[in-house]
Specification:
Distance between the termini: 9 Å
Shape: globular
Number of domains: 2
Strand content: 35-45%
């Protein structure tokens, strides 16, 4: 696997990161950028011209990771040429969250063929129920094939998210990339680092990823009560106070995407099933950084002793808001675990997709650092 990495900023234009060079001969270019720069036809055109035979795949973000730097409204382009592995793209568009499971099924059916070893998915971050998308994928892929990826971001605005895979960026789009070949090793890990506080409450009324009642009371009013002065800044301030979800399927974290005062409801990135228990969470700086390092260790261990060539870091926008000026500490922690030879790229997201623990398949996570590592032997 050979890799060339470049980044673009408004002040400096295109710059090269590291010493790798492909002379335009890439199979795949992974692109992460701010919403406005994702829309830029000129920047996308420049990448197509530089890598004429490559599949260009990417999404809008809430922050871009290049090596150990975190920037906003930049473009990070990571070009890859494989020695043995093969790739195949799939994409689909949806109009609303109710189509999420069917979209996952469509993508899986396109990709599920002989030699498939892994799937990377980048999804619209506002029109998709991430839990249902993950379920549609895992129910229709071979059991041994894991899925990692994330939901596109739009900074703290929550207005528009964009995804592309061999086409112009668009809202409502979900793109997936299948990796094929027995010589490709893929590792993954996903950890959080938040602390719970307050009472645990039963979800007594919900519909999919829309929450109405906790313990028979308005969930939105209870949430606003806990947030105090922060309630005036909803839904953005909700990123600082996610909910821990405990259910028969395991423990997960959920982030608010939107609120509806008229319906007294809260819309989350993933399902909030009735009968589950929810509890507020708050940041713990040191544990957030430790969680990033732990995710890196888990992904590295899955490579069976091989050194990672490429690591894709997908971290939640809530972590970025909390860590603020310390944000690069979590990326530094990943570098310390994976080593200097690994090319690091990634973005800050509205949700992360990764298997839950040792369970195969995939699940939606929120407020985690999720890392996918690749090594080609």
């Amino acid at each position: 696997m050979k890799i060339e990495q470049r980044y673009w900023t408004q002040g400096q234009g295109w710059q090269q990161e590291g010493s790798g060079t492909l002379d335009g001969a890439a199979d795949w270019v992974l692109v992460f950028s701010g919403t406005d720069t994702t829309r830029s036809a000129s920047c996308l055109g420049e990448l197509k011209a530089r890598y004429p035979g490559a599949l260009i795949m990417g999404c809008s973000t809430a922050g871009e990771i290049c090596a150990t730097r975190v920037r906003d409204d930049s473009i990070v382009a990571t070009a890859v040429r494989f020695e043995h592995a093969r790739i195949a793209p799939a994409q689909t568009d949806i109009a609303d969250m109710g189509e999420s499971h069917a979209a996952g099924k469509r993508l899986a059916q396109i990709l599920a063929r002989e030699g498939l070893v892994h799937v990377l998915v980048l999804s619209d971050g506002l029109k998709v129920n991430g839990s249902e998308l993950a379920r549609g994928l895992r129910e229709n892929l071979p059991q041994a094939v894991a899925v990692t990826g994330g939901l596109a971001g739009d900074g703290g605005r929550f207005a528009h998210t964009l995804v592309c895979a061999g086409s112009e960026p668009a809202e409502g789009r979900i793109a997936a990339l299948g990796f094929y070949g027995e010589r490709l090793r893929v590792g993954y890990g996903s950890l959080g680092g938040w602390d719970v506080f307050g009472a645990e409450r039963l979800i007594t009324k919900s519909r999919g990823n829309v929450l109405y009642e906790l313990d028979g009371q308005s969930a939105l009013e209870l949430y606003k009560k806990y947030l105090g002065d922060h309630a005036a800044d909803l839904p953005a301030s909700a990123l600082l106070f996610p909910l821990a979800l405990r259910s028969e399927q395991g423990d997960l974290v959920r982030t608010v995407l939107g609120i509806d005062d008229a319906e007294q409801s809260m819309t989350f990135a993933g399902d909030m099933p009735e009968g589950s228990y929810a509890r507020l969470m708050k940041a713990n700086f040191d544990r957030l950084v430790d969680g990033a390092s732990g995710a890196a260790s888990a992904s590295h261990e899955m490579l069976d002793g091989a050194s990672p060539d490429l690591a894709i870091l997908i971290s939640c926008v809530g972590r970025k808001l909390v860590l603020n000026q310390r944000i690069e500490e979590e990326v530094d922690g990943v570098r310390a675990v994976l080593g200097e030879q690994a090319v690091l790229t990634g973005f800050y997201s509205y949700g992360e997709i990764c298997p839950q623990g040792v369970v195969t398949g995939c699940e939606l996570h929120n407020q985690t650092m999720t890392i996918t590592t690749f090594s080609e032997g």
